[in-house]
């Protein structure tokens, strides 16, 4: 049994060169961390964040209608809690307990640090409580639910999206809020969610065409995928903003927000197609033969036998694509849309907050990094779950 | 008597009918788009033409390899932008490969601290948007450099807010000059691209080295070779088989990512094109030129990497 | 008094198949398989025996000739091909079980989707079939958790769940470890005794001797000899059969 001290010595000072490297790295690291902490506590002025937190979060969404956004958040928390509970079951392993504690701490401390109103602080805590309650409830009632409902649980996400969009944009009965007023994190999430939901079926369709025996479908898919993959996203966004007006019949001019959303979708679909294609290639030919021999038609074969296996293999690459898509929404600031980064830059252009680049960019970077890392960790957990139990939900 | 099979059940006919319908649909869609495009363009008086390329640009470029000013024609501006793009992409490919290889190899180091730091670097960079990183490098790092008076002076190079001066920098009337001068816009874009792509290339290199079977390491140790020698002579050559295709993807990514130069104020192809479009309104032509150029760059990179690929593939029976 | 002549369940006349690269794999095959008959097809590799088997359920197309299964001609009509596939079951060398579905779901998938039956009544039948092949306890396991022999028995049960009139076996024991071959052959023997029409491509001589009604030898894309097993194994007529038997015995 090696003592931890000896293991550390072996890992860091195994030979003179290693020892030198360790010392040099420790000095550098120590210096960097000290400088960062010193700046963050003493020199940085965090008022810029406090003063603009609402702008960064919601853009210019009208004040009297903001209750709708809280409703959307409540829907999201419920759906997340439900999914989490259905995936994990009644027990709370260490991972879950750590996540729950972290979420509660975040919901409690961050609004405090941002100096938000008391009602808002309580609202955030209530949302986390809602999420955890759903998690607990779903975990415990999982056994009692009919298997059909368990198979269809992913469908609540498109449903939540539609409801959410209806609430944000306004449907008959609610006051409409035009997309020009959406901004900040709200706009980022709207764009990302739209692209996430729409690029997936498109990408799967493209992948199926790519592997089809019919030459027209196959080469059409290849052409589309290779053209999109060869183009930088910013040029395609540019194309969408400028040329769409010329291409659609006169008079039809969708809002810039939706033009960008469609470009993001069509862009991501090509990459999703490539990920799904490698998944499809990993399914042995014998599977298709067995299905056809049993009498299943091509549609049933793809839906019930091939795609479930292909998507499981493609899952890591797919989640990687979703994370990239989320990060790509920042490019919308370059075509003049006021999503999170765009709003941040407009805040920095305000003479009152001139020069506060570091504070604003640091907060934004931390926010993005946390979301992306959470997504990556979640995907790895899902992967592990799928590997140990071939069907995601067991009765 | 042979009963003719109805077309919707015919094994051989049906695929062609499906393709026919799909092809027709695509044709109709394309025709609709093209007609709308032509009609709307002619209303705006903007039918496809290339003559505007010869008219004076009316804007200046931040930097240019070839002499340029506002009186020169648009096509020269675009060429200059293209050269700027090629310049930063070429430098970026070299830099990111060096950084990525170093970090990828470091993740196999016997020093745990080095290993963990390599992993931390990759995790930090991959989960942050590239645009934010570029803004960080430009606005927070490079724009905070001292002015020429208080420039950072090292043997052979000088770094100030005016740029990086290499090869015998000398002071002239309070400003630095040198045979090789790089603007901070270029430096910011270059650093951002290298650090970003370096993280992804590190993962590719790491995956490549990890793909070499453990038995190779063991056999080499048994022969008495040192870890560094093993890496150089036995593992890396085999790892290259897996690494080179992955590098192709990352290189193309880097070339496309260079289009974010706009954020750093660097006059690359895309930023020049955007300015040109804003001034002339020639959307279709500009977009065609830009997309075509990036496609060509991608094809060039792929062609070079493919020939490299066939070079590193191990001859098998 | 005349005995009505029942047409053969499988009728193959003058079948030719070429691949796109010009390889002529089936060169004029004639064969009849009667109801409740067990036919074993043997031959050297490349003789076209697996290809011939796969033409019986439309997995391989033929360029020339006629194949009639249970009165339905296999041609270009997709509806007829689907009708044939409902009546013909196939067991593959690589089992080809669906790894993402449980054993029970593997069995019930096709009857529900293809024959439109209700899931709970198919479940009952599936459990009975699993009992018949001796894997009742594994009903809720997944294929990855079973041994090769168990997987192949599940594959047989899966085909049986569609209530086929004919079962095709494409080298069912070739991918199994030796100790598991017997359990699969026993199941097949039970099926034969129960009156199932079976066409089996295999190298298992003892199975052919004990269970087959007729043995067919194929070589170079043609049927060389057809005879009952006692006659085929003790006194083969064709020199090619003699050569084949001397190579494998």
The CATH architecture assignment of chain C turns out to be: 3-Layer(aba) Sandwich
Largest interface: A-B, 53 and 53 residues
Enumerate the spans of chain A where pLDDT stays under 50 for 5 or more consecutive residues. none
Summing up helix and strand content along with how strands pair, one would put the structural category of chain C as: alpha/beta
Computed CA radius of gyration of chain A, to the nearest angstrom: 25 Å
Strand order of the largest sheet of chain C: 6-7-8-3-9-10
Report, as a whole number of angstroms, the end-to-end distance of chain C. 47 Å
Q: Mean pLDDT of chain A, as a whole number? A: 85
Ends of chain A: how far apart?
43 Å
Helical segment count of chain C: 9
In DSSP terms, counting alpha (H) and pi (I) runs of 4 or more, how many helices of chain A? 16
Largest sheet of chain A: none
Strand content of chain A: under 5%
SSE pattern of chain A: HHHHHHHHHHHHHHHH
Report the CATH superfamily of chain C.
P-loop containing nucleotide triphosphate hydrolases
Shape of chain A: globular
List keywords for this structure.
heterotrimer; B: 317 residues; alpha+beta; MetI-like fold; four-stranded antiparallel sheet; 9 helices; 63% helix; 6% strand; C: alpha/beta; Rossmann fold; six-stranded mixed sheet; 10 strands
